[in-house]
Amino acid sequence: MRVVVDAGSGLAPWRQVQDQIIRLIARGALAPGTRLPPIRQLAGDLGLASGTIARVYRELEAAGWVVTARARGTVVAEAAARSDPAALLRAAAAEFATSAKELGADEEAAVAAVRAVWSPP
């Protein structure tokens, strides 16, 4: 599992880690039943506090992406327990729309930005 935290991104480290794990699960790079690293190990690898990674794992579990069991640790949940991809896309779009508005962009500029990165020249 490759996760990277960019201190200059403006996005909270816990959110960066959470988003990357969700993407890995969604695209199948982390299959159901795959064990995630222990909290302390991942925190040490990323240079973050254990509490930060604990928050990530709690948020992922609350959303149905992972399950935690004492003996097995934190593992990727079966697909049935997760949100559907359309709901995830709407949530990502809502987050982007909020950011675009905060930057003062109108709808046309926001859509143009998405199109520019969707299929670059």
Automatic annotation (TrEMBL):
GO MF: DNA binding; DNA-binding transcription factor activity
UniProt KW Flavoprotein keyword: no
Keyword Transcription: yes
Record-linked SMART domains: HTH_GNTR (SM00345)
Keywords for this protein: DNA-binding, Transcription, Transcription regulation
Segments forming a coiled coil: none
Domain of life: Bacteria
Domain HTH gntR-type: 11-79
Protein name per its UniProtKB record: GntR family transcriptional regulator
